[in-house]
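Appendix B, example 12.
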Amino acid sequence: MTPSTGQDVRHLWPPTFKAAIFDFDGTIATTAPLWHEVDRAFLGARGIAMDVEYSRRLNILGFAAGARYTIERYGLPESVEDVCLEWERMARALYETKATLRPGAYAYIRALRDRGVPVALATTNGRGVLDAMRSVDLDEIFDVRVHAGELGVTKDAPDIYLKAAELLQASPSSCIVFEDILAAARSARRAGALVCGVRSGDANQDPHELRSNTDLWLDDWRDIAPVGKCA
């Protein structure tokens, strides 16, 4: 039986893990709609309608792998580099003014660091896109950042979580991973980490399916003490 949200939250504070690894889009940031906007505009310009399967697949692939998938799926004449550059240009413009963290996320990450728990970002998003944000400095929040594209990996394999744990100088089994995507959560489990599924509010997420494939569950970052006091 899956534990209730209240029981799950008690496992998150005080922390029972040695290090924490966070996904970005959807998990700690309200940015999933921005990527839907990019996908719709990119495909729409080519007379293609976006579907849920396509969007979910891109979530775990990142830029280069996602571009290859897109080109092959739709028979596009563009190169991987051209597609990636267009995506990054469109995303940077949106992230610069619209990307924000979810309420309570920063407070929880800050509380972990204040308690001596190292934290990492593990994302399929591009460094250039995230660095375009005006609302937050991720280098100030996280001890390390791991971008799937820079490693040449995707989130349907555990490599990105293993690398994040290595950089944090922690064993994977001593880490917790926060994820909002089913395939990514399964990969984090294969890495040996404790996995907390996070409700994103994105229509593409199936909360019941994700919750049944994770160790813990979180509806809202503000549910965690001491976050509720300062979020």
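The first helix runs from residue 5 to 12. Residues 38 and 98 are 13 Å apart (CA to CA).
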